[in-house]
Every structure is written in structure tokens, then in C-alpha cells.
Design brief:
This is ABC transporter ATP-binding protein. The protein has nine helices and ten strands. It is of the alpha/beta class and about 240 residues long.
Length: about 240
């Protein structure tokens, strides 16, 4: 079963192709790593997959359903979640509230300006469970601004997991982390069950290679190498455009 399929996807900005005829087929349960030099079009590909930007042509499907024209929020309801490269959380709010806000963003209740957070017991429970999954249950009531960078990265993953995704897109989850923090995040990703398909963009090859089963190498918006971890690492083109740097 293919969880995420991208066919002949193209996107240009001001006449310059940033995504060129990209095909991608990620099997359900797979752990896929997307690599490529700076500016290769990795984040743009994620933005196209989540619907934050629209492609010029091509198609995207999630478990066989065409979602090319489906709005972002509806894609989230269909089981797609992502973490962001740039941390976009609320520093004064607690961890719990940050995760609840992420969940609230998917509900109709978000339109109610007078919403009493503490009374949304379903959201509290889901947010607590998500924080527990990333090992942060004990910090649920701490303001986010008083946590470490590594802990915040885990909150971001909790926010995505709280949505019960079937496909989770991780945009540089290890960026800026110490070796120990990278190992912590790596362990929590390993603990995510196979009913969640994961696609990761990452530059930190030590942990990312351990994670990856298959790797896709993008260069100037094109897939230039794809295969198992061993195949991609051994491919001379990989060294030429990426690993040699
Ligand atoms: N909204 C936009 N308008 C114009 N150009 C854009 C836009 N978004 C991205 N680009 C350009 O598209 C190219 C690919 O950018 P993208 O962020 O997808 O690369 P990336 O592989 O994720 O890079 P990095 O590893 O540095 O994060 C870059 O040259 C970037 O400047």
C-alpha cells in the first residue's frame, strides 16, 4: 500500500523551477529520508505535499485518494501532519497549551474567542497523551519559554503526533540539537509505531541515516538518486552533489 504518492509534480517561482517532475512513492509504514544541498527544493516539496503551496502541475495522493486540490486543514483531517524547520510556538504558554492550540487549530471550536481551555477535556487528554509520547509529561505545565531547545523540538513532534497522523512529515527535526538531544529525538522517532509513515528532511547524517530505510536525493528540484540507504550512500552522484560537501 502506498501511503504518499507524488506524480510528475512541478512548481516554479518567477519562472524558475524549484520542483521538477518529481515522482515519489512512500510505502505505508516506511521511513523515508529526503536529502539534498541547500536550496534543492526539499521544503518546497513538503509545502506542496501539505498544501501550503499549490503545484503548477502534477498530482499528490494520500492512501490512494487524490489530494492535489485539497486544502491544508482538510489534508490534516485525512491524516497528514508536519513539523516545521522554524520553531513556531508560543513561549509564554505552557507545553500543554501549545499542544492544545495545535489541536484546536483543526477543530471548529477554534472560531470561539471565549473558549475556556481547561474545560476542553478531550483536547487536554489528547495533548497530555502526546506529551507523554515524547517523554515530556512531567513538563506539561511549564511555560515553553523555560524549556530547552531540544525539549521544544520534542514539543513540535508532540503537536504533530497529537493529530494522530497516518503520514508524518518531519522538517529537520535534529537541526541545532546537541549530540545527546539528537539521540533523544532519534529514540522517540524510533518508538513511533509503523502505522505512522514518516518522511524526513534532514542534514544531520549521523542520526538521519540510522532512521532512513529509503533515501531520495533532490538536486535543483529533481530526484537524482533514490533507493535503499545502502544504494544511495554508495551512489557516486550522492557523493558528488551531497555527501562530499
Ligand atoms: N515563495 C518563494 N518564492 C520564490 N522563491 C522561493 C520561494 N520558496 C522557495 N523559493 C526558492 O526555491 C528554492 C528551493 O528552496 P527550498 O527552501 O525548498 O530548498 P531546501 O532544499 O529546503 O533548502 P534548505 O536545505 O536550505 O532548507 C530556493 O532557491 C528558494 O530561494
Amino acid at each position: 500500500m502506498i501511503a504518499l504518492q507524488v506524480k510528475d509534480l512541478q512548481k516554479s517561482f518567477e519562472g524558475l523551477y524549484v520542483t521538477r517532475r518529481v515522482d515519489l512513492a512512500v510505502e505505508a509504514g516506511e521511513r523515508r529520508l529526503i536529502i539534498g544541498p541547500n536550496g534543492a527544493g526539499k521544503t518546497t516539496l513538503f509545502n506542496l505535499i501539505t498544501g501550503e503551496i499549490a503545484p503548477d502541475s502534477g498530482s499528490i495522493s494520500l492512501f490512494g485518494d487524490d489530494i492535489t486540490r485539497t486544502p491544508v486543514r482538510a489534508r490534516a483531517h485525512l491524516g497528514m501532519a508536519r513539523t516545521y524547520q522554524i520553531i513556531t510556538l508560543f513561549g509564554r504558554d505552557t507545553l500543554l497549551r501549545n499542544v492544545m492550540l495545535a489541536l484546536l487549530g483543526l477543530c471548529k471550536r477554534r472560531w470561539n474567542p471565549l473558549i475556556d481551555f481547561e474545560r476542553q477535556t478531550d483536547l487536554v487528554e489528547k495533548a497530555e497523551a502526546a506529551l507523554a509520547r515524547v517523554g515530556l509529561a512531567h513538563l506539561a505545565h511549564r511555560p515553553l519559554g523555560e524549556t530547552s531547545y531540544g525539549e521544544r523540538r520534542r514539543v513540535e513532534i508532540a503537536m504533530a503526533l497529537a493529530q494522530n497522523p497516518r503520514v508524518l512529515l518531519l522538517d529537520e527535526p535534529f537541526a541545532g540539537l546537541s549530540i545527546d538531544e539528537r539521540q533523544d529525538v532519534h529514540k522517540l522517532l524510533l518508538a513511533i509505531p509503523r502505522d505512522v509513515t514518516m518522511v524526513m528532511i534532514e542534514h544531520n547524517m549521523d542520526v538521519a541515516l540510522e532512521f532512513a530505510e529509503k533515501i531520495t536525493l533532490l538536486h535543483f528540484g529533481q530526484v537524482i538518486v533514490e533507493g535503499t540507504r545502502a544504494e544511495v550512500v554508495a551512489n557516486p552522484r550522492t557523493r558528488e552533489v551531497y555527501l562530499g560537501h
